[in-house]
# Entry
Amino acid sequence: MKNNNLIRYICSFVLLGLVAGGCKKTFLDEYNPSNRTTDNFYTTATGYETLVNACYPLLRDITQQRIPTLNGTDMFSANGWTGTLLFPTLTTQSGSPYDAYDISLNSSLGELQSLWDMLYREVNRCNAAVTRATAVTGMVDSVKNVRIGEAKFLRSLSFFWAVQQWGDIPMPLTETTTGSLEVKKTAAKDVYTQIINDLNDAVAKLPVTQKDAGRVTKGAAKFLLARVYLTRGWNFNNSLGGTSADFTSALVLCDDLISSGLYPMESNWNNLWPIHNKNPKKETATAASSVAIANASKEVIFSVQYANGTGTAYNGDANLSTSTGTIGNDLHTRFSGGPNGVAQESRTGTYNRFLPAHNVTWGAYRLFDPQMDVRYEGTFNSVVYATIAGTVSLSANKPYPQSLTLSYAISDTTAIVLPWNVPMTSTAQLGVNIPGGTKKYAVQNVVDLFWLGKLTSPTQQINDAMSWGGPMFWKFWQPGIAYGDGFSTFNDPLFRSAELYLMAAEAIVKGATGAKLGTADVYYNRVLDRALGTNAGKSPKCATNPGNVLDPLTNVTIYRATPSTINIDMILDEYGREFLGEGNERWYQLKRTGKLIERATKFNGWTAWGRAGVSQIAAKHLLRPIPQGMLDNSSPRIEQNPGY
Amino acid sequence: MRKGLLLVTFLTFIASIAFAQTRKINGTVQGDNGAVIAGASITLKGTTKGTTTNNDGKFSIDVPSSGKAVLVINSIGFGSQEIAVSTQTDLSIKLTSDSKQLEDVVVVGYGSVRKKDLTGAVGSLAPRDIVRANPANATQALQGQVTGVVITKTSNKPGQGFAIDIRGQNTITGATEPLVVIDGVIGARLRDINPQDIQSIDILKDASSTAIYGARGANGVIIVTSKKGVAGKPKVTFDSYLGQKQPAHLPQLLNAQQFYQATATDVVLNGGTANTFTASEMNMINSGKSTDWVGLVAKPSTMANSTVAVTGGNAGTTYRFSGGYIQEDGNIASTSFKKYTLNAAVDSRLNNWLRVGITAYINYSTNPTGSLEILRSAYRARPTGVIYYNDIVNPSEGNDLAIGPWNDLSIWMGIKDNQVPNPLIDADPSIYQNTTTISNPMGNAFIELTLLKGLTFKSSLSASSIDERNGEFRNTLSKSQLTNPPRANYSQKNWGTYTIDNQLSYNLATGKHKLSATALQSAYKNNAENYAIAATNLPFGSLWYNLGTGTTTATSGFSRNSLESYMGRVNYTFNDKYLFTLTGRADGASQLATENRWAFFPSGAFAWQAGDENFIKNLNIFSDLKLRVSYGEVGNSNVAAYSTQAGLLTTSYSFGATAVSAFAPAAIGNKDLKWERSQELNLGLNMGFLDNRISATVELYKRNTRDLILNQTLPTSTGFSSVVTNVGKVSNKGLEIMLNTRNIETKHFSWNTSINFSKNINNIEALANGVTSVIGSGLFVGKPVRSHFDYQFAGIWQLADSTAAKSFGQFPGSVKVTDTNKDGVISNSTGKDDRMWLGTQLPNFTMGMTNRVSYKNLDLSFLFYYRNGTMYKNGMLDGTMADYTGGRYNKIVMNYWTKNNPTNDFYGPGVSQPYRGARSYEDASFIRLSDVTVGYTVPKSILDKRKIERMRIYMQVLNPNYWTKYNGMDPEYNSNTYIDDVPNLTYAVGLNIGF
# Structure
């Protein structure tokens, strides 16, 4: 009996002992071996380096948001503008919001929200890099200063894009460490002041060259500063605090970079792009060899890096909900025109994937001289080859029904597009797509592309197995890469020295003084002559009214500049030819120079058509609507830009 | 005491030898259903003397002729009974069945009370209610059967979960799911227990009841008690059913001819551009053929369950073992849920002061879900497409020439589009597989010491380890791969949790006073680990079992949270009429800010058994009347571990060819994060009339929650999109009524009805810093959470309104939305916002009604369930499944506008639709006849000869019909067909047998 009690009490004691043992003081302390925190990692030199590194990858996400920077301009629209637009009875038709500039261009557009989110995500990272620098231990000041310079450059670049899109914007300069719903807008002119101060600081801190390819250099900071001065000089809506002195500041920076000799222009314009064969089946370059020359070009002052194509290289920020999530550059997939679908492999990378978000306007084709300017062939591919053997039945061909069965072998031509200035002149040139055609491939010219006079009703089926939308935009194509949204290892060139000449020309036209090379036309023709190659010095011709497809082909204009002819429109034409699709710049160039409304209406059919045939583009569109998420998540709600 | 007992036994023994004078007592033992019980044991208390009843339930036993004798009667499935015999010689003994006995006891967490003594708001389900509709997941059993509980299915896929809301939405972020306790395993999952193994489910609703679980019970507590052993001879039960699931209640899709009309003829009529069709499609259209892709991928399938259980034991030790198998196949090919369960429970009283017990569960389930895309692809694929390659009229028109055929199937179906490949290909297991297997051993072991009379100390450990593996394989030709080489992922997640409870209990009953007190110390820890490997470029179809042959990337992670608690509870009863409960609990949660970790939550309750007062009895109205009031505080710390830390986000970049590490700030670490706290007042009323033939329970409650934990959306100019923070106040007010009636009760015929009604009003009272709305988070002061805020659908612009339409930039046939501020412009900008509050996903009220009818050996039961007032942004209408603005994909049949059909129901194809989304908001109220069951119990006279104790066979129809105005697959949840299965109707037959 006593024993029993004893055991009982011993048991109780042991169990109570366990209870006491269970309540260790550290029981509620968090244990987190899988992650470090900003507070304990960024204070180390290694940690701080990874933070500055983290300011770069979002450039990939940001620069892949091209819809708000390319579409709705004179050069690109979301939809091709052939076909249905010719029928005014289609009152309900309208282009994409960015082209139509109608009620659908409003705050709920996902692309604007994405761009905004990414830019401010980038700003916050740069802010962390700038503000956390002082607390870093074990890092020499000289290195630290370079990193601060990089972060300030990247922050400026983000603010610069944002201020051009939206005008007055929030301008946080410190890392966000607590959540607040209150948002304050900063006036555009103060944003410009901040950008210019930061860039001047970056110019002072950054080295001329960096050990790592693709890091920001002093040259890149000067380039951006030149562009910022130029933009402020135009002084949009008198709201930027710009003066004519800004043009001279821009010119000085351009001249400085040109004369430094660090960034010589390539002698051959095609060296800037991946090597690619017009017939992909005869391609000899590999994915790696195709971009070797382009990625090493000294003409490129700053580019978004994609050269490391291995799986670890996320396309920027894989955790960003708005990210495409794929790996690599996607430039090769985003522009108009794949093959015509006849005897073609499906879903392969042979002709690169085409997900055309930016279709070249007809006016853009007609800015080039197809015979003299190497950039025409360098930008557009006008021929399609069969990539598999196949049989095509034309029985369903409309509007030219004919019953024909054709067999193609690999590398047979299946379609060509004639240059815009050399139309078909005889029936002998007719392709199989037209009754009586003798060529075993489709031949298309202006008439075909627009079905001019051939269609009488919008309901008529255009279901031609052979026809083709137009020349393929192939400047960025890279052979040998996987089928998908991304995967290109071509470094996206954001700044290259050719632009310095055109910026200088623009500044001089706007009154900048002290040019080192001469008058504006001298700068302009340097860029042109490189593009003319063996034709350097000659006078190439473009359509006088490129956007008007009904204009006679004889109505052409020389685009070599002389002191008397050079003007802003010529410079904008040349920006278009030289940089078509590059650098996320076109919308900004047109806005900067006050030419957006005029040129988009002239070149871009969807902008001209507007809504129900009434053009909608107006001055308010020079500022984008603040994205809905910002309005809805801020409290008090921030003000929308006027007119939305 | 023990000494005394020995002495008594000894003396009795001596006495029986010395005097040996006995007399014979005869008797009959019956169950409460009137049937005689064979094999019941009858022992003379204090002796080893005993007997058993014969087949007629009769027995006879000798007892000492003088003095009082006490007989103890035991039989499996019935409660033990003691009868004092003085002079009687013929006894008629009625035993009460165990289930009934258990029904009268409510498990309240760390203890149980008689239903009569309950002070809080607790809902209970008995086994017959739990298994009535043969749910594969026990959660389903709660739907429509318990007040205050809203169960919503989240998918039609087999093996998928349910959302459980108890008394509305208290919290917004994170799980709103209640705490589930299975046999003391805290934080278990309802899906992990075989419904056939459940003895009772008790749902603790008010703060006083859940207080004992403190923070973890903030969203209510569901306590599951499994069936336990019963002393007696081993008893075997076998329960089984087999059913066929038919696809049913499907929304109708356009056929080829309707598709042509909707995307060509009527588009042109409305002034748009006709869709283009290939010769192959035109052939289908013109020859009156059509392909029903949904019909091709959704087929009848099987559901089945078998459970075998053995129970038994002796007076000191009882046991129960069971093994079960549940199978529920999906209607989509290659999808299935199979679960194997083993359960063992042993409870042993080693001596008069030491008791130990262990309950263990081992579950293993496998859940192949097939391609995520099958159903969506089947809803998207055009009816004008052809199944087989050879049926394509002109393969060169589309992409078919380039890939295909595969097993005679066409890839692109003769359509000039390459977004949705033939759904039959993704449905093939050699092309796509996705399988989740879960093994979950869990268990609870305890040791209980009786220290002094009425004072016990109990220490228990419950542990669970959920191991979830997922393999996904996408072969070449699957929708996402097409011509690319196969890829696969393999991931594993493990949640290891344990809870240690040390409990000291004291019970005292003297005279009219009854007191019980409980003190508890509890510690909980949860470790979550995961890893995943993804491989691309696999050289052959090795599923996820040879990832090394491809290009692999690996990820892994860890998180841990812990909770430490101290609790005390006192129950005091005076005269069985006045009942008091006081509870206090202090909790410390690891994931909150260091200085805000600890919080104390008190509660109290009082109940008055008014029906026992003479002045109520004298009214002769109530056969039962009880009033209850409770008030308490609970807290919620339901945020992810490390929410107070700003972690790092792994990204990467390369400079030239050199890859570099890049770590960005991942989130805002909220260093002020603290407990979300709720105060709840509950008024309860239990009433019985006409000898309890009508009984009703009414609950009224109000719960105020403050420091609401919210994953608040932020203006993205901060660089982040959200932060976990404490904001504002929300209230939930509600009314719950449960009504049970025994409508008819005769010897052969009975009819019972159970009706429940639950209404909850959720309201945001305030948001942080005086903010009145955060549109991005859907939060508006004065409105419920989970609100919809958008443009309001106001019909369709008609031809007669052309001018007005034009002023809004619209056309006849466009969706018209309300210009709320009448400024002539539709805008969502600050100051002229036309969007408005449209409704909420929370139901207005829910109702359930169960009827049970029995006639002789036949029984019938059926359940109706009604949900009123839920609004969804319909995923079918909002997705491609009803997108009449384009001709790429097939659509469900809608009454759309044309120039010849001026309806206001649905917009016109061929007309631009900037406000199409406004049409997607729909009322998802519905009434469902959930199930109908007809059973037959084989008469005992037949069974007895075969030594079978009980046998019932039944037939059942599940989900025979529902009524709703909602367009889509199933109004219960908002599906867009992605990762989903079709709705179904199931016919089943079942057998319950006991030996």
User: Anything to note?
Assistant: DSSP finds 13 helices and 50 strands in chain B. Residues 2-18 of chain B form the longest helix (17 residues).
